[in-house]
Specification:
Layout lengths: L1 H26 L3 H26 L24
Length: about 80
């Protein structure tokens, strides 16, 4: 349960900071900066995450799905 709490708090911290800064910019009537900040955060964040996933999986070979009918995964009752 501790891991869930840490994960939840860890996820809320960046989001609350993002929200606070966005509201702060909009209250200072800096609408252009607020829109630019929001747009860049929503584009750069996922792009950085995708780059991290690509770098992290570099050299591991292609991923193989073990879905239904693929013949991979756990053997059946007959041991095949």
């Amino acid at each position: 349960m501790t891991i869930v709490g840490v994960g939840f708090c860890g996820a809320c911290t960046p989001f609350s900071t993002f929200s606070y800064e966005l509201i702060l910019l909009s209250r200072k009537v800096q609408t252009e900066k607020a829109v630019l900040y929001a747009a860049s955060s929503l584009v750069v964040g996922p792009a950085a995450a995708a780059a991290g996933l690509a770098v992290g999986s570099f050299g591991q070979g292609p991923r193989v799905s073990a879905g239904k009918g693929s013949g991979k995964g756990r053997p059946g009752p007959s041991g095949t």
